[in-house]
Task: structure prediction
Amino acid sequence: MNNKTLVSETEITVRFCEVDSLHIVWHGHYIKYFEDGREDFGYKYGISYRDIFNNHLLTPIVKVNCEYKYPLTFGEKAIVETTYVDSEAAKLIFHFKIYRASNHEVVATGESIQVFLNENKELLLTVPPFFAEWKKKWGIA
Result:
């Protein structure tokens, strides 16, 4: 592991269908916002789901958590900060911070962990060559 940090920031706008009867974002949508952050990170750094799939790999989520700090409401803009966390294991680990765009108040934090599977859906216990090359490209390996 090293100290190189890869970060992506994604702006989202809270849609009407994402708020509940309390007029705040329903808690499950924060996990979707994490997904928005992962997708943006993947496009920015060349490790999108399409890149992974084109290398005959799958990366299912095996763990996700979210700590809620303050609610978001309809029409608010927020920024999802997605940070790659290096690991020697064959895993993709991301940390998330969701900020209210208007004042940069942290409204939620979280983490997701994905593992690598081959096309037969068998767990890979060693880092696949595609991922090792990606880490080297970005100065992580």
